[in-house]
Amino acid sequence: MPRGINKRGWHYITNNTDESRHSEDKLSFYGAHNFLLVRDGSTCFGLFVDFPGKVYYDIGYTRHDLFSFHTETPDYDLYLLSGGNENAICKEFRTLIGRSYIPPKWAFGLAQSRWGYKTEEDVREVARQYKEHDLPLDMICMDIEYMQDYADFTVNKERFPDLAKLSADLKAQGIRLVPIIDAGVRIDPNDPTCTEGLEKGYFCTKADGTPFVAAVWPGKAYFADFLRPEVREWFGHKYKALTDCGIEGFWNDMNEPSLFYSPERLRAFLNDMAALREKDNIEQEEFFPRVVGGAMGLMNSPADYASFYHEVDGQKVRHDQVHNLYGGSMTRAAGEAFADLRPGQRTLLYSRSSFIGSHRYGGIWLGDNNSSWAQLLANIQMMPSVQMCGFLYSGADLCGFSSDTTPDLALRWLEFGLLTPLMRNHSAVGTRMQEYYRFPEVLPAVRNMIRLRYALLPYLYSEFMKAALENTSYFRPLAFDYPDDPDAREVEDQLLLGEGLMAAPVYVQNAHGRHVYLPEPMKLLRLRAVDDYDEEILPAGHHYIRCALDEVLLFLRPGHIVPVAQPANNTSELDDASLTLWSFLPDGESAEYRMYRDDGVTTEYEKKEHWKTLQIHHS
């Protein structure tokens, strides 16, 4: 949802939407996560609306003291969770909805992505430049250009003559290729995905039973009916064309589904424009609704979503009534197939569109943001919200996807992004190139911050695995751990990270510091690098803390230990056995830390030997 952690004062619609303008006036974004925490004085409860279509919320918008919601049809399930504070209720909810997806450990390294890497040489050049500039890297993502005519499960052999060799060569350097898969299937009589889907009746249909058609990147496309298990099995196993090339990770996109136009509505619009062409003067009463509104209204039209159908248990169900299930069901299709295609192995998977339930099969990124300081703050605020709904493996496009980033924004965003499970620098074609090696002015600081991410992985990975295996939280608002502290409830720009850390990112351009609220005494680490930092014990209360552009603020909570490794060029080179222990033990007491350490690639998560207890004893 748009806006911050505290949703009071606005109205919202959970309606999965390809919305690239992430401003405060928006009502819907890419995911439908119908779980809310409500605190009324000393009482806290959780509310989960299990419904596949639009849910409308009025959270203190009409009246500041009134909360209401309604669904388009009355057949929803409502869950009320009570008995405890925010952490207890979130844990209960997470237990109810099932274990969160766990990616391979290499997926916690840095990913470099851009819509615009058009050839194998482009990809190899990114790997070369990262190595030349001594910047760690684990992934390079490939957007739609690697495909033949933007068709799923194809490779353009002119641009990428040997994808398997490219994948193997990069993997030898510790770098994985992560290609995109879109929801729309290109209409092409020579494409087996298209012809098989038609032959087996696996695409969504119009009321007359013919396949629904709308245009996306490849032009006209069909859309797999992911609500049917046989279709999920068929589509998911299509990823084999790429796993056979050594690919071990994917990102699913355009799966709200995003529709550029339907042929019927485009034809009607063009006919309307032809009628207007005969006029000498188009007044603004016609220009805005018919020309501007007509053109913009072609994309993701509600009329299109109401014009096609799924088959559910032998019944025809109109798409708009189950719209929010679509993208997450695509994630499920891939996730279930990977268990068969790569048995016992973890496969990286993250999606743009999601609903609660798809968190069991893949992670998410926060969609097509832009290069602005407001979007950095939005990234900070959104993380605990998506994670309490089960989407632990999540993150935003660092530096921003659209618009042009700046060196200081790139660095400040990295200083928060180095803490998010998914850590991906991604940008759009036509924008400023923003690979981290392109900013010489801040390159030494960028290098130190990426290396800090790798040094913190023993802690970050352990806290992620605890959250996944024990249904706890990785990121939390301060109010979750300090529910009786009225000042803590006001803070939305500081986050608790696992058991022992609090992050206070700087998200204002040209700022040389920031206000920080400490609910209890903490140890400040003002880090310029993993081995270059100031430390200071600060009392509880409000502080203004200096923070230069090349510094990041982390706070150690009392009685806690944070294990830290030496930086590495990628996750495969990381030594998580030789550790330094950061700690804040105010009274000289002893402390323990439960660290999780496994091979990072297999699915045997439960073994007791994965857990190791680290201790600091003071006599």
From TrEMBL:
Q: Report the protein name in the record.
A: Glycosyl hydrolase, family 31
| Sample GO molecular function, one term | carbohydrate binding
Q: Which UniProt keywords apply?
A: Glycosidase, Hydrolase
Give a GO biological-process term. carbohydrate metabolic process
PROSITE patterns for this protein: GLYCOSYL_HYDROL_F31_1
Q: From which domain of life does this come?
A: Bacteria
Domain Glycosyl hydrolase family 31 C-terminal intervals: 473-562
Pfam families, per the entry? Glyco_hydro_31_2nd, Glyco_hydro_31_3rd
The EC designation for this entry is 3.2.1.-
Keyword Transcription in annotation: no
What family, per the record?
A: Belongs to the glycosyl hydrolase 31 family.
Asked whether the keyword Hydrolase is assigned, the reply is: yes
Q: Which residues form the Glycoside hydrolase family 31 TIM barrel domain?
A: 101-462
